[in-house]
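Look over what follows to help learners.
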Amino acid sequence: MKNCIFCLIAMALAFNLTADDQFEVRLATEVQLVPIYLEKLAGDGTELSREYLNEIDNVLRFDFTYNGTTVPVPAKNGREHYIISGSVQGKTLTASVLDIKAGKKLSFGNIELKGTLSSDRRLIHEIADAIHNKLFGFEGIASTRILFVDKKSQSSGEVWVADYDGANQKQLTYQNALCVSPSFIPPQQGYRSKDYFYVCYKTGQPKIFHATLDGGNGQRVTNLRGNQLMPELSRARDKLVFISDAAGNPDVFLYDFDPQKGIIGKPRQIYAVPFATQASPSFSPDGSKIALVSNKDGRAKIYTIDIPSPGTPVNQIKAELLVKRNWACTAPSWSPDGTKIAYTSKKDGARQIFVYDLISRHSKQITQGPGDKENPAWAPNSLHLAFNQSKENGCNIFIVNTNQLKPVRITSGFTEKKYPSWEKR
C-alpha cells in the first residue's frame, strides 16, 4: 500500500512531453547588497578562549553573508555602510554598529553567553536579527529553524529540526517507520512555533500526526480511513488542508481546526476531478485560497482555487491555471507576503525551483545545474527558500536568497534529507 500511494502521487510529477513545450524563464538580476565590515570580537577580559570567540565570529559572519541584505567586505575600504563590532567581558557580550554615513553608533545590549556553542549560537542569531531589524526595518531569518526528514531507507525516515544554518540538529520523532512532509504550525502573533504536523507510515498507510518541538511522536490527528498526506494549517490556524483518497481518489480535503481542540467536525472535500490526481495544497496567507497540483488536463500543473463555502458542490468548484508554459510542475508553496508561489518544474533534464510572481504573472528560475531540486519552502521574510537537492551521493537541504541565486548547503552526509519546512512567524 505504501508504494501504491507514492506511485499515485508521483503521477502528478511527470507525464509525456511534446516538442512544443516552452518555458518562460526569467533569471533574476542580482540585487545590490549593503557592504558591511565585521570586526573580530574583542575578548581581552573574557574567560572564553580565542578559539571559542572565533566560532562565534563565524556564526555572525554566516548570518550577515546569507541574510539577503548585506555582504561582509574583507577589509575597510571606505565603501562599507556599517561597521559591526563586539566585545566580551567575562561572559557578557556587547555589540554595536557604526553607521558611517549617518555618523552615529547603535548599541545592542548586554548578552550573557553560556560558554556552550549550541546555546550561544542561538544568542548570536538573535543579535544578528536584532541588528538587521534596526538597520533595515524588517526581521532577519537567523533565529529561525527548519524541519526536515532524514530518510535512512525506503521504509525509514524521521523528522529532525535544525537552526536555519543547519547547526543544532535534533531528532524529533522515533517512529521506526517512514515519516514525510513535516509542516510547522503557525504560532500565535508574537510567539515562536512550538509544534508541527507530519505524515507517518507506521500503520502501513500514511496518517497525519501532530507533535511538538520538544520531541516525541505526538498523536494521530484523525481516524479518517484511507491515506492522508501533505497537511498544512492556515496562517489563522483555523483550517487544516490535506490530500486524502477517502473518496477513492487523491483529492483535496479541509478540516475546520481549533489550536486547543484540534480538528472540528467532519472533513469536506473542496477539490476533486474524476480520474485525476491532486497533490501539495498550500494556503494563501489570508487563508482564502489554496494552490495545488493537478493532472486533470493531462499533465501536472499548478492551479489555485478559492476555498468554497460549506455545502458548495465539489463539481462547481473551479480551478484557475497558474503556470501555463512550464510542465511537470509540483510542490507549490505560497510566500508569506502573498505575492509569490514557489514550485518545481523540469528544465534541461533536472527538476529546478521556480518562483511565480502573482503581480507580474511571470516565472523566475531560481536554481540551475544537475541534480533534482524539490520541495521549496519559504522563509518568513518571503525572500529565502529552503529546498532539497539530490545528487549521486545523497540528498541534502539548501537555502537560497531569491535575489542572489547562490544556494548554500546546510546539511551533509549520504542519507536523504528531504521535505524542508521553514519556521513561520
